[in-house]
Amino acid sequence: MAAALVSKCSRVGRSLLGGLGNNTSGLLSTSNEIMSNNFLSQQQRTFIQMRTVLKVVDNSGAKKVMCIQSLKGKKGARLGDTIVASVKEAMPNGKVKKGKVVYGVVVRAAMQRGRVDGSEVKFDDNAVVLVDKQGQPIGTRVFGPVPHELRKKHVKILTLAQHIA
Questions:
Q1: Are 126 and 106 a contacting pair, CB within 8 Å?
Q2: 8 is in which domain, residue-wise?
Q3: Burial class of residue 2, CB neighbours in 10 A (0-12, 13-18, 19+)
Q4: Which of 38, 43, 7 minimizes the C-alpha distance to 30?
Q5: pLDDT per residue as tens digits for the range 71-125
Q6: Considering the entire predicted model, what is its pTM?
Q7: Same domain? 17 vs 82
Q8: Are 69 and 132 members of one domain?
Q9: Alpha-carbon distances of 51 from 4, 76, 82, rounded to whole Å
Q10: Among 43, 73, 83, 131, which is most exposed with the fewest C-beta within 10 angstroms?
Q11: How far apart are CA 59 and CA 36, in angstroms?
Q12: Which Pfam families match (predicted)?
């Protein structure tokens, strides 16, 4: 894209890029550095750990929660794990109020997870479905895709989901 911009400017006969003229090597190296930095930031996906803010994808009334503790593993939670979270944003007439401590199941995680067929699944965001202490969902609908890896422990969440990935 940057090379196309430089060639278009050089055809007009003047440079819009601050006096670069036909010298595109500096611009191309800068764009390559931006692309490599973007690639590295995408590779550094980690566990869901303390103070991670997650999106709530059910109709329980909460919008965002912050992870307090992962109930499995020392490093943090992954896809399908249960966490303890605090509600940070909530809808006014929802079942769950702001400040309440709740349990949640991670249904979407930005960290990749391998499947048995050799493929990997990862999502753009971190999302949870709120559950009670017995593991039953608080809401009655789950929005967005839910991976089929949850069928081992959380069948009820899969039945409420619109799309199973």
A1: yes
A2: 2-43
A3: middle
A4: 38
A5: 987 888 889 899 999 999 999 998 999 999 999 999 999 988 888 898 888 899 9
A6: 0.70
A7: no
A8: yes
A9: 43, 11, 15
A10: 43
A11: 39
A12: Ribosomal_L14
